[in-house]
Design brief:
The chain is mainly alpha-helical and about 190 residues long. It is built from nine helices and four strands, in the order ααββααβαβαααα. A hairpin with a 5-residue loop joins β1 and β2. About 30% of the residues are buried.
Length: about 190
């Protein structure tokens, strides 16, 4: 049932939002030299790598790390607006339609984080990564939070990431279709 919902809802979203997707893509091309889409390898279900699609929100030559912090100079003004309203995530509807992602699940991590999962933590790899999920709701202000600490990478690795794993494991053990619908609604109306 969840996969059928993902297919129908992502297809509907891509069709209905196609004018918005086109406008955002044109704005990016006009205001930020380079491609409109950002593509990156992420860890998917069963640890299989896939290419995630997002609207580009950073400069093309930033050479930055794996986490982003609110106010970084590599995030463009248009990119900051896209990120604030999560519009940069809209191309992930294509990943959902293709079956690489779901609307609800753990956010897809960078491949290097997969090897850090130990024991039961690896159960979350049985889930399709999600556009949103419990950890996404709890850490909706993640970039702001990381901007407030002295060492954002260390804080992410030692505090945020383990807590996200705990939230994702809780989701793994207690997920329901109705619960997914509630997470989607909470994401939209937060």
């Amino acid at each position: 049932m969840k996969r059928i919902f993902d297919i129908l809802a992502s297809l509907f979203g891509l069709i209905v939002l196609s004018p918005v997707l086109l406008i955002i893509a044109v704005l990016i091309r006009v205001r930020m030299p380079g491609p409109a889409l950002f593509k990156q390898k992420r860890t998917g279900r069963y640890g299989k790598l896939f290419t995630i699609y997002k609207f580009r929100s950073m400069t093309t030559d930033h050479g930055g790390g794996t986490i982003s912090v609110l106010g970084e100079n590599r995030i463009t003004p248009l990119g900051a607006t896209l990120r604030k309203y999560k519009l940069d995530e809209l191309p992930e509807l294509w990943n959902i339609l293709r079956g690489e992602m779901s609307f609800v699940g753990p956010r897809p991590d960078m491949p290097e984080y997969m090897n850090r999962l130990l024991g039961d933590e690896r159960l979350i790899l049985e889930l399709r990564p999600g556009l949103t999920g419990p950890a996404t709701l709890v850490y909706a202000n993640e970039e702001e939070l990381l901007a407030s600490v002295e060492d954002p990478q260390k804080y992410n690795d030692e505090v945020l990431w383990p807590e996200k794993i705990r939230l994702n494991l809780d989701y793994y053990h207690n997920r329901t279709f109705l619960g997914d619908i509630l997470i989607i609604l909470r994401t939209i109306f937060r």
